[in-house]
Design brief:
Stationary-phase Survival Protein Sure Homolog, Chain: A; nine-stranded mixed beta sheet; two-stranded antiparallel ribbon; binds manganese (II) ion
């Protein structure tokens, strides 16, 4: 099985290397990843400038391709140019930091998986809770186990998934929680500072999300220490209101 592996932390990130080693047990891995960190770029693409790509080596081993672009660019280029055959699976990660709740919509890691889904390829984003001493190898083995189970159970249709691993879950095996994405807005605050010339500037503080709520979501399950898996879709249409809105018989006026 051909696997396209990317991320948003950049091709030299330890999470990508760990996942590459683990996925080698599942298939032939092609690495196409951003040349520099692209966290938080969401689903941006490059079209006003050329996409410069460099082949990356580790000793004499060809490691992959480093793209001066976004995670979504990497998936497009990976599928069109660098995978010798069409991949059967796109994997994005392991991101250093969870991608849960509304952060899913800012995430470059998840955007890469969504891009894979645009091509009709089963895709999965993998994120590990941020830690200075993050155990990416352990998380990668865990992710591989979950991916194998998902592929065995999901049926033939392509599907899109978001997998998150909190640090406590690395300690011992526990059930994986299948949960929806939490959708409450949470307060990113800005610290106001002054530069040496007295001009004000702002820096987002990255506050932790609210992980308590009535309904179980990725945020609440992660807070309780569970690995979470969320099936995603990129169709943003409110299908439930389409029929009602068609009856409005809207016109452009006269
Ligand atoms: Mn990242």
């Amino acid at each position: 099985m051909r696997i396209l592996l990317t991320n948003d932390d950049g091709i030299y990130a330890p999470g990508l290397a760990a996942l590459e080693r683990a996925l080698a047990k599942l298939g032939d891995v092609t690495v196409v990843a951003p040349a520099t960190e692209q966290s938080g770029v969401g689903h941006s693409i490059t079209f006003l400038s050329p996409l410069v790509v460099k082949e990356v080596f580790e000793g004499t081993r060809q490691r992959g391709w480093a793209v001066e672009g976004s995670p979504a660019d990497c998936v497009k280029l990976g599928i069109f140019e660098f995978c010798p055959t069409r991949p059967a699976l796109v994997v994005s990660g392991i991101n250093g930091g969870l991608n849960a709740g509304i952060n899913v919509l800012y995430s470059g890691t998840v955007a890469a998986a969504i891009e894979g889904a645009f091509f009709g390829i089963t895709s999965i984003a993998v994120s590990l809770e941020f830690d200075e001493q993050a155990q990416f190898d352990k998380a990668a083995r865990m992710a591989l186990g979950v991916i194998e189970q998902v592929l065995a159970r999901k049926g033939p249709a392509p599907q899109l998934f978001n997998l998150n691993i909190p640090t406590p879950a690395l300690a011992r095996p526990r059930p994986v929680k299948v949960v929806p994405m939490g959708v409450e807005r949470y307060g990113e605050h800005f610290e106001k500072r002054s530069d040496p010339r007295g001009r004000n500037y702002y820096w987002a503080t990255g506050d932790p999300p609210p992980r308590r709520g009535a309904q179980e979501t990725d945020l609440t399950a992660l807070e309780a220490g569970f690995v979470t898996l969320t099936p995603l879709d990129f169709d943003l249409t409110r299908h439930d209101v389409l029929d009602t809105m068609r009856q409005w018989s809207l016109t452009t006026g006269d």
